[in-house]
């Protein structure tokens, strides 16, 4: 009997994870001819309803391709049992595909155990030498050469997952003719002088230890306005995803420094902390303790869920309250204090 078409992709490397999902989708489409695609967020959707959708397909329906994100939030006993029942039963005879994803490294153990071992993968942050090779290959495939100094500068400026690197490096291809050798000066002109505000620049402002909490809040709200002006409504999901990545990295930083341990530069780089990132997270760790970081991650998840439930009507107000809570209250929920 063939394995059930159920997959579990975890870990912080977003670009390679996205590529793996696209490959599975292409294979499913080739096998079934066509697909009905759906994406859900655990915590925002009843998993029992998702399972019911996977089960209730007639002979005349197209095969389903369902992605459930934030799978680490599948905690309810009834949801777990419903999902396990389908994975261990109907999924093996079904044409439908279910992909569970999480930016965490693991999810509920019972669910992990039920997914076929060859359908599971943790997408770890790339090691420093892999990032260098990835950038060289990426520029070469697009008809460009890049100098070692330029690579180092990009890795210092851009969050080190391939999705972020692709988004930023793609800008060079519109500014130079093919065959051009990208130098450190080019990087400075394209990425520094034309830098767009995003979740990662927002985190830098939030973690600027040289400023008071009130000043950090003011700077952060200014960046939030720029992001909103550039992108319009519906920015919450991407913004929270980026901030979630940063605060999960901060959690990793705290874990690596627990009990007074001081990891070496090689260990830190292997965990995704370049020299610039080390400075950034060292400062952030002085602002937010391990406990505060956990509270902030819970607040981000709650804010994401509220946004999906209530739409964009009060988006700006929710985001302002969220930043106020993180910067001035260390992640304390707005309902728990009076401003």
Radius of gyration: 22 Å
**If you average the pLDDT, what whole number results?**
85
Tell me the β content: 5-15%
Enumerate how many helices there are, as a single number: 16
Short characterization:
The protein has 16 helices and seven strands. The chain is of the alpha/beta class and 339 residues long.
Keywords:
9% strand, 339 residues, single chain, 7 strands, alpha/beta, two-stranded parallel sheet, 16 helices, five-stranded parallel sheet
Describe the structure.
- It is a single chain.
- It is built from 16 helices and seven strands.
- By secondary structure, it is α/β, with parallel strands linked by helices.
- It has a five-stranded parallel sheet with strand order 2-3-4-1-5, with helices on one face. The protein has a two-stranded parallel ribbon with strand order 6-7.
- Helix 2 links the parallel strand 2 and strand 3.
- The longest helix has 21 residues.
- The radius of gyration is 22 Å and the shape is globular.
- The termini are far apart.
Please outline the helices and strands.
Layout: E1 6-10, H1 14-32, E2 35-41, H2 47-55, E3 63-69, H3 77-88, E4 97-102, H4 109-114, E5 120-122, H5 128-141, E6 145-146, H6 148-157, H7 162-169, H8 172-175, E7 181-182, H9 184-192, H10 199-206, H11 213-231, H12 236-256, H13 265-270, H14 275-287, H15 290-310, H16 315-329
Parallel strand pairs: 1-4, 1-5, 2-3, 3-4, 6-7
């Amino acid at each position: 009997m063939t394995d059930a078409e159920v997959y579990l992709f975890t870990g912080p490397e977003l670009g390679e994870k996205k590529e793996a999902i696209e490959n599975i989708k292409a294979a499913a489409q080739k096998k079934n001819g066509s697909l009905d695609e759906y994406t859900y967020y655990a915590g925002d959707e009843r998993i029992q309803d998702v399972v019911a959708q996977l089960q209730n397909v007639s002979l005349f329906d197209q095969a389903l391709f369902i992605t459930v994100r934030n799978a680490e939030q599948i905690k309810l006993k009834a949801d777990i049992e419903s999902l396990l029942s389908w994975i261990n039963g109907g999924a093996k005879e079904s044409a439908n595909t279910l992909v569970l994803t999480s930016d965490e490294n693991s999810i509920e153990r019972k669910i992990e155990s039920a997914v076929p071992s060859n359908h599971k993968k943790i997408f770890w942050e790339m090691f420093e030498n892999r990032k260098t090779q990835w950038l060289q290959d990426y520029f070469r495939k697009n008809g460009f050469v890049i100098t070692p100094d330029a690579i180092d500068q990009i890795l210092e400026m851009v969050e080190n997952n391939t999705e972020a690197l692709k988004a930023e490096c793609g800008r060079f291809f519109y500014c130079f003719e093919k065959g051009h050798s990208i130098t450190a000066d080019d990087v400075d002109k394209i990425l520094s002088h034309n830098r767009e505000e995003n979740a990662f620049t927002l985190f830098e402002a939030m973690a600027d230890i040289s400023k008071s909490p009130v000043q950090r809040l003011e700077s952060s709200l200014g960046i939030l306005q720029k992001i909103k002006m550039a992108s319009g409504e519906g920015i919450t999901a991407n913004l929270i995803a980026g901030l979630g990545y940063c605060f999960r990295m901060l959690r990793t930083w705290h874990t690596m420094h627990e009990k007074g341990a001081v990891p070496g530069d090689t260990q830190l780089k292997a965990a995704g902390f370049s020299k610039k990132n080390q400075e950034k997270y060292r400062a952030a760790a002085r602002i937010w303790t391990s406990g505060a970081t956990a509270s902030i991650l819970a607040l981000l998840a709650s804010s994401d869920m509220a946004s999906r439930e209530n739409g964009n009507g009060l988006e700006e107000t929710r985001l302002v309250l969220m930043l106020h809570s993180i910067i001035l209250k260390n992640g304390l929920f707005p309902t728990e204090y009076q401003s």
